[in-house]
Every structure is written in C-alpha cells, then in structure tokens.
Design brief:
Blueprint: H1 3-33, E1 37-44, E2 47-54, H2 58-76, H3 84-90, E3 97-98, H4 101-116, H5 126-131, H6 145-152, E4 160-163, E5 168-171, H7 184-198, E6 203-208, E7 211-215, E8 224-229, E9 238-244, E10 253-260, E11 265-268, E12 271-274, E13 291-296, H8 299-323, E14 328-332, E15 337-340, E16 348-350, E17 356-357
Parallel strand pairs: 15-17
Antiparallel strand pairs: 1-2, 2-6, 3-5, 4-5, 6-7, 7-10, 8-9, 9-16, 10-13, 11-12, 13-14, 14-15
Helix pairs in contact: 2-7, 4-8, 7-8
This protein binds adenosine monophosphate (AMP) and magnesium ion.
Magnesium ion (MG) binds at residues 182, 257, 259, 303-304, 306-307.
C-alpha cells in the first residue's frame, strides 16, 4: 500500500471515530434532556408536599417516599395524640420514656440546632405554641400576659434529657411540651431524598411545605430556580429567586428553606400575630425580618435555622448566618428591603422592583 492510500484511510477512520463520538454524545444528551418526568402531591405533616422526579421509576419511588413521610408524621406530629412525640409530652416531669432510635436521633439534632441558634430555635416551644392556640379547634388568639409568663418557664431545651444508652427521652418539668414543627419538614426532606436515592432516582425536586431539597441537576442543565415568595402578596407571587447550578450542590444536593410571618397568622386589633414565637418573650418574634430563607447542605439544619434566624432578627440573624460556613441566607423586611449574606450575591435574582437589595 502506498503512503497516500494509508494516509487517506487513516483520515477516513479518524473522521468516523470523531463523528461517532459526536453522535453518541448527542444521543446521551438527548436521553438526559428527555428524562421521564413524574410528579405527585400529598397532604401530610400539616402541609402540601410535592415531589418531582426525572428518570425511570419515578412513580414507585414517590409512592415509597410518601409512605416514609407518613411514618415520620406518626413519630413527630404534635397534633396527633398517638404520636411518639406525645408520649414524651404526656410524661413531662415524670418517668423517662423509651423511644424509637429515629425519634432519639431527631431530638439530638434538635438540641444541637437549638444551641447553634442560640436558643432562638427551641424544640420545647410547645407550651407557648399550644397556649397561643395554634392547631386548636377554636383557632389562635392572644393569651393573657400571666399565662405567657407561666408558659415561658416551660421552654428550655436544656431541660430535654436524652439518654442514648437507655434509648429514652424526658422533659424535666411537668407541663413542658416538645414541638418539632420548625424542623420536621426539613428532616422529612432529608429522608425523602434517601428513599429516592435508594430507588435509583438521581434527579429530583422535593418541596415539603416550602422546605425544598434539590437532588442532582435539572435534566436540561439550566439552574434550578427557586422562587422566594413576596411576603406581602396574597397570591403568593415570587419577589425573587435563588438560582442553584451544579457548582452550588454539595455532595449532589442542596436544601432551601423559608420561614415567614405570612405562613400562619391572625389579626386582632389591627395587629398581626404570626406563628413563629420568640422563646425570650413568648410573643411572635419581632426581629425586623418578615421572611428568612436559608440555603445549605443539610435540610434539617436549615429548617431549624430558617426559624431561628427569623427569631434572632435582621441584625443578629444576619451576623449568625454570615458566621456559619456553607450557609447562605436572604432576609426580607416589612419595608421590602432585602439583605443577603455574602455568598448569596451570585445566587439571588430580584424579580420585583418594589423590593430593594440593600447589601
Ligand atoms: P417554620 O415554618 O419552620 O419556621 O416553623 C414554624 C413552626 O415551628 C411553628 O408553627 C411552631 O410549631 C414551631 N415554632 C414556633 N416558634 C418556634 C421557635 N422559636 N423554635 C422552635 N419552633 C418554633
Ligand atoms: Mg423551620
């Protein structure tokens, strides 16, 4: 064979290899973009839960996830008389109660997060939650000052005694009540992702009552765009968004949680009373923020943080958020001013020019 022919054959082969590479890459991308989508919604944990999966097996995976959420509800729900949590509450001031390892683990986390939040998130807030009438048949109302003072005595996460050896928990004083409402949805989100992963799902959007966990990237590789609700719009319109690209994922996932005074509230004499209680005063927190959004890796932690930062308020909350590594936050005030932690700059997009990004 002469040299020219050799050269020609080599070139043809090279072109074929490159073309094949391009075509198969295209095919792969097409398959990725056209991943089968499945979405379902269920009411649980006193809220609306939506899960969307990309890829095969979504329906079965989501069914299993909802079953898992039911188990979590049976463990943690303050408003279910039969829940394991309420066995601890019923025995407050008395004997330590043997509990499931899962509940024990959640309580340990809750105590850790209470310390991280300087007590502004406190899982023993229950005496106050119930005093204000949240979850009651009559609905919420403003309690008497002396009742608030009494209930305040019953809120202290240091008086939640947990024994890993004995597998027990105990509230030290009669009348103390555990309320995990500020962390349950985050924990459930964490577990939901576990179940999805076990079922081979690699990309999903999980929204448990505003506590969002993103698994993997979106199939079309555009960033996930998580709307932040306008806290003063009845229609729940977004005032901005947090955009999450592949570089923002930590170990393949990320969580976004918002706490706001618009989620549950009532009005009395032109005053708005919302559901996030300051454990120092016994009244709805008034720290200057009407909405706090937190972005970080651990869904349970940021659920606690979104509530805790709300209570700490604009100044102390921003300071704490800034000091925590890998945690970013958005604070919105009544005046429609928006405050961001330093790492949030490139993630937050303002969509409503009634609002002003201050820093
Ligand atoms: P979130 O929507 O995550 O901010 O949680 C609010 C829920 O947590 C309320 O409905 C109460 O059940 C509970 N809660 C209210 N105030 C506090 C607090 N300071 N610490 C812990 N839980 C709280
Ligand atoms: Mg929370």
């Amino acid at each position: 064979m002469n040299n020219k022919l050799m050269m020609a054959i080599t070139i043809v082969i090279l072109i074929a290899v490159v073309l094949f590479g391009v075509v198969s890459q295209r095919q792969e991308e097409n398959e990725k973009h056209n991943l089968e989508e499945y979405e379902n919604t269920a009411m649980m944990l006193d809220t609306v839960n939506t899960i969307r999966t990309y890829g095969p097996g979504g329906e079965e995976a989501v069914q299993q996830t909802f079953s898992r959420l039911e188990e979590i509800e049976a463990l943690l729900d303050l408003y279910d008389a039969e829940s394991s949590l309420n066995r601890i509450n019923e025995n407050a001031g008395g004997e330590a109660v043997e509990i499931e390892p899962e509940l024990l683990a959640v309580l340990e986390m809750a105590k850790e997060f209470a310390a991280e939040n300087e007590g502004s998130f406190d899982p023993t807030i229950g005496a106050l939650t119930l005093l204000w009438g949240w979850g009651s048949e009559e609905g919420p109302s403003v309690p008497a000052q002396e009742d608030i003072e009494q209930a305040l005595e019953l809120v202290d996460y240091n008086k939640l005694e947990i024994s890993g050896d004995e597998q027990t928990a105990r509230l030290a004083e009669e009348g103390m009540i555990l309320d995990l409402g500020a962390i349950a949805k985050g924990y459930a989100g964490d577990e939901a992702v576990e179940v999805l992963l076990e079922n081979g799902i690699e990309r999903a959007f999980v929204n448990l009552g505003g506590n969002i966990v993103l698994l993997g990237t979106k199939p079309d590789e555009t960033p996930w765009r998580i709307g932040i609700q306008n806290p003063r719009s009845d229609r729940g319109r977004a005032m901005g968004s947090v955009d999450i690209g592949e570089e923002d994922l930590i170990a393949g996932q990320i969580a976004v949680a918002t706490s706001g005074d618009y989620e549950r509230y009532f009005e009395d004499n032109d005053t708005r009373y919302h559901h996030i209680i300051d454990p120092e005063t016994g009244y709805p927190a008034e720290g200057g923020a009407v909405s706090t959004t937190v972005v970080s890796e651990n869904p349970s932690r940021i659920d606690a943080l979104s509530t805790g930062l709300f209570v700490l308020g604009l100044e102390r909350g921003l300071e704490l958020a800034e000091s925590l590594e890998g945690v970013e936050a958005v604070f919105i005030t009544e005046e429609k001013d928006v405050y961001l932690t330093s790492g949030m700059d490139d993630k937050f997009q303002l969509m409503d020019d009634d609002f002003t990004v201050v820093n």
